Amino acid sequence: MSKQPVSRRQFLNYTLTGVGGFMAAGMLMPMVRFAVDPVLKGEAAGDYHPTQQKVSELTETPVRVDFSYEQKDAWYTSEVTSTAWVYKNNKGEIVALSPVCKHLGCTVSWEGNDHKNQFFCPCHNGLYEKSGKNVPGTPPLKPLDVYPTAEKDGLLQLGKPQANNV
Ligand code: FES
Prior knowledge:
Elements: H1 8-40, E1 49-54, E2 63-73, E3 76-88, E4 94-97, E5 109-110, E6 118-121, E7 126-129, E8 146-147, E9 149-152, E10 155-158
This protein binds FE2/S2 (inorganic) cluster (FES).
């Protein structure tokens, strides 16, 4: 390998290019961060939406709880209305199930169409047990999603629905 000395012109070129690059990056980074920041900010885990359901009034019979909240999708904010089927299990724990059928997304109802002690989906006769577990032999292949729950001032709060491991 030949060792050629770096000329003064080359040295200045390298130095100015390097310094210029750092300065450009320093100016551009805040602008890029500002532009994409809302996209990077997802809904924080542990975000709960308030409902008007009193926890003390929950029983072992599922009740429909409607609630709404503001959803920020990048730069766009919208009002979302959602629903949960909520009850207390035999251990006294609150169970809040998503009403969205895991087959094709219709809305299930408790004891619909005279199906005792089950959630019923009218679209293709899907059935779920009270725990949200799908009944084998009916179209849904997964259990209903479950909402994380919390209580504030005696009122139920619901998080983001997640997979139900029943
Ligand atoms: S969408 Fe519920 S059974 Fe098909």
